[in-house]
Fold:
Amino acid sequence: MRAQYSSQPSTPSEKLGTPRPWAANPKASPWIPGLRVRPWSYWSLTTRKIAAVACGLLALFLLKNVLFSINHHGRQRPAYLTHPIVYNTTILPNAAFQPPEALPHRYSDRIDTFSTYKYRNTCDISSLDLHSPFAPLCSDRKSLINAISGGGRIGFDAPYMPRGCDMRWFSTEEICEILGRFDKVIILGDSMMRHVIGSINVLVRKDLGYGAVTDWNFSPEERRDCFCNYQFNVKACSVQGIFKTADVVKNDPDSVACPPNTIDVMIEQMIRFPIPPEELARLRDLLPEKKPTRPYAFVFGHGLWNDLDLQATLDWLDLILETMKASAPWLSPSESSVSSRTAGAAQQSHERKRETGFWPRLFMTPNAAGKEKPDEWLVTQGNKALMIFEESVKIEVRRRGVEHVGTWNMSVQSNKFDGV
Structure:
């Protein structure tokens, strides 16, 4: 690039009359103040200049065609890009999940059923944070169990959603009605099952702060340490956990939302195999010799205390089932008593089904491992071992007439309170 020159000295030391570069070259352009004059050779065409001009013209041509296409050919787009779509208020085309049916029995699915619970605002827990409703509902128990086992969350700690079909989020009144259909609900297993009965007590007591623990005899320190989520703290608050709803009825009857003497839920802790004889003796004492007017229901949970050893879990379950049948034959009568009845009478069909034993049994496998799971347990109790264990247990317990629900999928994307 040519240097520009000024009529004034470039530096204070420059003297007047200093020869200018163009003075020695008569072909050089003279300097005119305020005007930069280029020689004719500067304006001569070269290959590089011609290419630059051509590229500029080409860019302008392409820009003109793009603008013309946008302004004059927009109406040729597909209708779904230009015309608004009016959605049905109950069915959304191409939506992954349909909104729940506008039916009375789905009302509790759409609202925060915890809004009337004690300490709702303090504990800051909403039922809508736990479950997101959608349509359709599962049509039977089998599809419901499969949906719960296969469900999950769309994002970490997002509300849980079953897979394929939805479950009901029952109100406390409905929970009381369901539990009241059974003479007794017996939960057998380890600390995970203790959390299950604790959650049931939270629901039937409508208490998010102390529903799972014996708050009627708490010290000020226990009321502070076992509050809201901390009531499920295994180390600090497990001793204060409620193991029987009968204890609540005895010590704090006004806290139970269910009608008096309608529910009986309890847990018998049987955490590992071999099962100690005293634990089997307590199980026998729970079962009456004669058939009760209402059925008994059983929920099993086992695995971690035997390091997810499949055979140990099956031996644990088999021994419990054998003990039950020996102590309460009415749970599973022999086939001979059934075959002695007339097979053709339709009115006796229901009677025969009841006589063969209405023995509802459910096995729950452990939840997914959290990030605080100690390293020494990652091989025996880590997520790979838990997944294999859940799939294997499902196959084996179904062969024994026991239904199975998995909890790995529903918990793998959730924050674990204790981190394990």
Summary: The CA atoms of residues 189 and 269 lie 5 Å apart.
